[in-house]
Amino acid sequence: MLGRAPDVVVSAPGRVNLIGEHTDYNDGFVLPTVIPQRTFIAVSRRDGSHVRAHSETLGGDDGYELGREARVGRWIDYLQGVTHSLAKSGRVLRGFDVVVASDVPVGSGLSSSAALEVAMMRALRATFELELDDVELARLAQRGENEIVGAPVGILDPLACSLGEIGSALFVDTRSLGSERIVIPRAVELVVVDSGVAHDHVQGGYRERRAQCEEAARRLGVRALRDVGEDDLARIASLRPPLDRRARHVVTENARVLRAVDAMRRDDVHTLGALFDASHESMRDDFEVSVPRVDRLVERAKAHPEVIGARLTGGGFGGAIVALARAGHGADAASAIAAEPGARALVPPPPR
Q1: Which residue in the list 157, 194, 244, 286 is annotated as catalytic?
Q2: Under a CB-based contact definition with an 8 Å cutoff, are residues 251 and 228 in contact?
Q3: What would the CATH number be for the domain defined by 187-345?
């Protein structure tokens, strides 16, 4: 489509969240890492204010006018969100052609949308020489997805795709946006298996869960569920159902993230695996975002002799699982877990 050599070619990775689910929009803690699969973007400047876009992997040709971004319900909305939020932040853009290619699985809970948005942000930052650091880049990506795509996502996904590195997890306090890289213990390999059940943050229960968390915080008299802890579980239990369960998940999940970081620092993979298992149970029973096929994948993983722990990763209602396998056994474990009909193993991270 470009018809000439692009001005810029960039990429951004997908991510898998190790632990800390539905905590980001509650000002809590998260612990993601990136995966080898990436979204690639090539951009060329053009005159005027028109954007021409093409992607064989996402949906063919599309386009729009800068300054007239509006949701149309197609993949182009993610690009519109990027240029919309850049303009709202005072950055000046001109027309461009863009080609997108990605091998981040769509609808698998591995941040295909954030990888696209972050890659697009990087491309426009380079093309138009924008002053934009990696944290602000993530915040603008989130804003675009909230306001144009219409998905009420938190900061976890774009921040992970913007700051993450293979071989380490990114421990993030989503209130301060402070982060620290935590080395993944060498005694384990991450196994990621796609359930084949696609999820969608624009529709379905994600929006409802966020609203329930906000209502629980109001009823508890706090700014966000980050501001209550395990000492408050008795007070949380007095909330009406299901607010009690939603808040209990967020509070205990925040605590699990902190314990997971401590376990990783000590190379205590058995504690880390137990935290994975407990997180999945909380996602399944208290937050109620798992589905039967995902639960079967987790149980299949836990039954494997070389798997230490497993959980649903991502927002839920489908998507993928992440498991901890003993080093050297990740490929075998992935193959066994993916024997579940409809599932597929994703390429594990390369050796560190």
Answers
A1: 157
A2: yes
A3: 3.30.70.890
